[in-house]
Write a structure and sequence with these properties.
With 168 residues, the protein is α+β, with helices and mostly antiparallel strands. The protein is built from 5 helices and 5 strands.
Length: 168
Amino acid sequence: MHTRSLARAVAWFALLATGCVSERAESLEAGASPDQITGKSYRLERAYLVSVHVPSADVDKVLAAAVAAVGLDYGEYDQVAYLDAPGLEQFRPREGAKAGAQVAATSAQTTSASFSVPRDSAVLQKALDAVYTAHSYEEPVIYVREVWRTRATNPDDSNPNRWWSRVR
């Protein structure tokens, strides 16, 4: 057995021995689909992950439009989104752009906002339509990925790491 394979096997069995990985997860090694993976308090489901670069001043407006269109639900929560720290986006308008062709690239402060929606093309289209309508760019930078996301199946009330177990 190669050293890398041996190390992987040792790590896998250590996780199993400590209970950090359910026995059902062993099936992933055997080629099972992610939708067959379930833990004590979660399952996996297919979703779309939408990431959009938004001028920092417009983040609230773009997210509000997405929330109004599809809610951005995640279990018992809504308006669920993730914002990366502001960064710089670089671009150079070419011939045909509304800004007109420019010689040098320009940069603008943007924030990357991401959210997930169920793997339903109608919901995805509503979210994208809302983002395009609220976004100030002629060509918004949006990435859509098919992903697996976790969903809670049991609140696991005995887990001391849950926020409600730490509240005094």
